[in-house]
C-alpha cells in the first residue's frame, strides 16, 4: 500500500523555459564548486599526491552513473530525478528509500557548499569587522556560521523569484567560475615540481585508520572527493521545465560532466605540482592558499573573491533540485500535499523556503568534511538505484522507446552499482552509522505515512 495524495486533481505543472545551454550551465554550476575549490584540501589530507588517482576513480564511477541517468531522464522526464525512476521501476517502497536518500544528499550538499563559500568569504568579512566566532560553527570554536546561512537565504530568494531568471544569472556566474579556475591553472601549472608527487601513495590504497583517528587511503579520499563530481543529477530534476527533454537532458548531463572532468584534472594536477600536499591539506581555501604560498597574493585575492561570487551557482543547482524532489514526493503523497502548490510565477515557493531553512541550520553548525561525507552516502544510494533501474528496464522493457540509448546499457548499469557500493563502504565508519540512523528514521516516517493513508482510505 502506498501513500496517496488527499486530492485527486491533477497537479499544477511547471513551466517549460529551459533549453540545453541552460542545462549544461546548471550542471557545470552544480558540479564545479566546493569539490575542487575546497575539498581538494580534504582529499590531499586523506590520500597525499594520490588524490589525483582518487579523482580519476570517483570521476569514472560518476561517468557510469551519468550515462544511466541520461537514458532514464530521456525516457521519464519527471521532476523527481532518481526518486521518480525508482518509484516507477522498483516500486513505491524502494522509491521512498531513494527519495529519502536524495533528501539527505541535496540538503547536505547545499549545506556543504554554503560552508565552503563561507571559507572563502570569512577572511574578507573578518577583515571588514565581522567577529570570527560568527563565521564558523561550534565544532570549529565559533558560535554559528552566519555567512553560510546568509548565502542560502540569498539563493533561495533568487529561486523563489523565477526559474528562467535564475538560469540566466547562473550561466553568467558559471563563466566567472571557469575563468577563475583557468586563472589558477595558468599561474600554478608552470611551477609544477615532480618531486611533490613522491611518495605518490603515502597512505596506501584501501581505507584504514591513521594514528590521528582519521581514515586515510586513496579510496577513503575518493569516497569524499566523489562529492566533487556529482551535480549532473540536478539536471534530471529540471526535466519538467525542459523544452525538449529527450535531447536537452542528455546533452546537459553528459556535456556538463565532460567539461568538469577536464577542469578537475587540470586544477588538481596544478595544485599538487605547485606545492607539497601537506602545505594545503584540510585548508578551507586551498587554491587561494597555494597561490599565497607561491607569492601570488594578488591572484589569490582574485580567486577568493571569484569563489565568493561564483560558488552560489552550486547552491542554486542543488537547492533547485531539492525543491523539485520534494515537489514530486509531495505529489505522490509522501510529503504534505500543500508543499506541491506553485506560486503565481510557477515556482514551488513553499518547498523552496522549507528546504532553505533546513539546510541553513545544518550549515550554521556542522563542519564541512562531516557534511560532505554524509551527503555522499545518500548520493551513492541514489546512484546505485539508478543503475539498478537501468538494468531492470533493459530486461523488463527491452523494446521501450528510448530517446537516448546507452551502449552496453546492462554493463554500464552493473558497473555503476558496483562502483557506488565500493565507494559507499569506503566512507568513514561514523558516516555509515549516521546513514543507517537516517534510514531508520525514514522507515518510521514511511510507516506513519502509510498508516495515515490507510485511515484516510477508510474514512
Automatic annotation (TrEMBL):
Give the membrane topology, semicolon-separated if more than one.
Answer: Multi-pass membrane protein
Q: Which residues cross the membrane?
A: 23-44, 50-72, 93-120, 140-160, 172-192, 217-237, 249-278, 298-321, 351-368, 374-393, 405-425, 431-448
The entry's keywords? Membrane, Transmembrane, Transmembrane helix, Transport
PANTHER family per UniProt: CATIONIC AMINO ACID TRANSPORTER 4, INNER MEMBRANE TRANSPORTER YGJI-RELATED
Its protein name is Amino acid permease
Q: Which Gene3D superfamilies does the UniProt record give?
A: Amino acid/polyamine transporter I
Got a GO cellular component term for this one? membrane
What terms describe the molecular function in GO for this protein?
Answer: amino acid transmembrane transporter activity
Where does this polypeptide localize?
Membrane
Q: Does the keyword NAD apply?
A: no
This protein's species is Novosphingobium piscinae
Classification via InterPro entries: AA/rel_permease1
Amino acid at each position: 500500500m502506498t501513500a496517496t495524495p488527499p486530492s485527486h486533481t491533477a497537479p499544477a505543472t511547471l513551466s517549460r523555459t529551459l533549453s540545453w545551454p541552460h542545462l549544461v550551465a546548471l550542471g557545470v554550476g552544480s558540479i564545479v564548486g566546493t569539490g575542487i575549490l575546497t575539498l581538494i584540501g580534504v582529499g590531499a589530507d586523506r590520500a597525499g599526491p594520490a588524490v589525483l588517482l582518487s579523482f580519476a576513480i570517483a570521476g569514472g564511477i560518476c561517468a557510469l552513473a551519468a550515462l544511466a541517468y541520461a537514458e532514464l531522464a530521456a525516457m521519464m522526464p519527471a521532476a523527481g530525478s532518481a526518486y521518480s525512476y525508482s518509484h516507477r521501476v522498483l516500486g513505491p517502497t524502494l522509491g521512498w528509500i531513494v527519495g529519502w536518500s536524495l533528501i539527505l544528499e541535496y540538503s547536505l550538499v547545499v549545506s556543504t557548499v554554503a560552508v565552503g563559500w563561507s571559507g572563502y568569504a570569512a577572511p574578507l568579512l573578518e577583515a571588514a569587522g565581522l567577529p570570527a566566532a560568527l563565521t564558523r560553527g561550534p565544532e570549529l570554536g565559533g558560535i554559528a556560521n552566519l555567512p553560510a546561512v546568509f548565502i542560502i537565504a540569498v539563493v533561495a530568494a533568487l529561486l523563489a523569484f523565477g526559474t528562467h531568471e535564475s538560469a540566466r544569472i547562473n550561466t553568467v556566474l558559471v563563466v566567472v567560475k571557469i575563468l577563475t579556475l583557468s586563472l589558477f591553472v595558468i599561474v600554478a601549472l608552470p611551477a609544477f615540481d615532480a618531486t611533490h608527487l613522491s611518495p605518490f601513495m603515502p597512505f596506501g590504497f584501501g581505507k584504514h585508520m591513521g594514528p590521528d583517528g582519521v581514515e586515510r587511503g586513496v579510496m577513503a579520499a575518493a569516497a569524499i572527493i566523489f562529492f566533487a563530481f556529482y551535480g549532473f543529477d540536478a539536471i534530471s530534476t529540471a526535466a519538467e521545465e525542459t523544452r525538449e527533454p529527450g535531447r536537452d537532458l542528455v546533452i546537459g548531463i553528459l556535456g556538463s560532466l565532460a567539461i568538469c572532468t577536464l577542469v578537475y584534472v587540470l586544477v588538481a594536477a596544478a595544485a599538487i605540482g605547485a606545492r607539497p600536499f601537506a602545505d594545503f591539506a584540510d585548508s578551507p581555501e586551498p587554491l587561494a592558499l597555494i597561490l599565497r604560498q607561491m607569492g601570488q597574493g594578488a591572484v589569490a585575492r582574485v580567486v577568493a573573491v571569484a569563489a565568493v561570487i561564483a560558488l552560489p551557482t552550486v547552491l542554486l543547482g542543488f537547492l533547485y533540485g531539492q525543491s523539485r524532489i520534494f515537489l514530486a514526493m509531495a505529489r505522490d503523497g509522501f510529503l504534505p500535499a500543500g508543499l506541491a502548490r506553485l506560486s503565481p510565477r510557477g515556482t514551488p515557493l513553499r518547498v523552496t523556503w522549507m528546504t532553505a531553512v533546513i539546510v541553513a541550520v545544518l550549515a550554521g553548525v556542522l563542519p564541512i568534511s562531516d557534511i560532505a561525507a554524509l551527503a555522499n552516502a545518500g548520493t551513492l544510494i541514489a546512484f546505485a538505484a539508478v543503475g539498478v533501474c537501468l538494468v531492470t528496464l533493459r530486461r523488463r522493457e527491452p523494446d521501450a522507446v528510448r530517446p537516448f540509448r546507452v551502449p552496453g546499457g546492462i554493463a554500464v548499469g552493473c558497473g555503476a552499482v558496483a562502483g557506488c557500493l565500493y565507494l559507499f563502504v569506503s566512507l568513514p565508519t561514523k558516516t555509515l552509522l549516521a546513514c543507517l540512523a537516517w534510514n531508520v528514521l525514514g522507515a518510521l516516517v514511511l510507516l506513519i505515512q502509510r498508516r495515515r493513508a490507510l485511515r484516510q482510505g477508510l474514512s
